[in-house]
Write a structure and sequence with these properties.
CATH architecture: Orthogonal Bundle
Distance between the termini: 39 Å
CATH class: Mainly Alpha
Strand order of the largest sheet: 1-3-2
Strand content: 5-15%
Structural class: alpha+beta
Mean pLDDT: 87
C-alpha cells in the first residue's frame, strides 16, 4: 500500500476520488498522461485495495476505499507528534521573518 501511495499521480487520483466516484475517462481527462498510464495507476491502486470499481452500463466507476487509508492513519498516528513539533518550529521561524 505504501508503494502505491508513494507516487504523486496515484495520490492525486485518490484526492479526486475522495471528492466523488469517477470513470477512468473522467480521471484521465484531469491529467496530461495517456489513458493507458492512468489505467495502470488505477490498477495499482485497485490491487492495493485503495480503490474499487463497479460497472455502470458501459463504464467502470472508480471509488475510494477508505478502510485501508484508515489503517495507514492509525499506523501514522504515533508519529504525528514529530510533525507537529516541526510545523510549530516552521511557524515560529516564519513569524520571526
Amino acid at each position: 500500500m505504501f508503494q502505491a501511495l508513494a507516487n504523486p499521480v496515484r495520490r492525486r487520483l485518490l484526492e479526486i476520488l475522495a471528492e466523488a466516484p469517477c470513470t477512468a475517462g473522467d480521471l484521465g481527462d484531469r491529467f496530461e498522461l495517456s489513458r493507458s498510464s492512468v489505467a495502470e495507476h488505477l490498477k495499482v491502486l485497485k490491487d492495493s485495495g485503495l480503490v474499487f470499481d463497479r460497472s455502470q452500463g458501459r463504464h467502470r466507476i472508480y471509488e475510494l476505499s477508505a478502510e485501508p487509508l484508515a489503517e495507514v492513519g492509525d499506523w501514522l498516528h504515533p508519529f504525528e507528534r514529530f510533525w507537529r513539533a516541526r510545523l510549530s518550529d516552521i511557524a515560529t521561524i516564519a513569524e520571526d521573518l
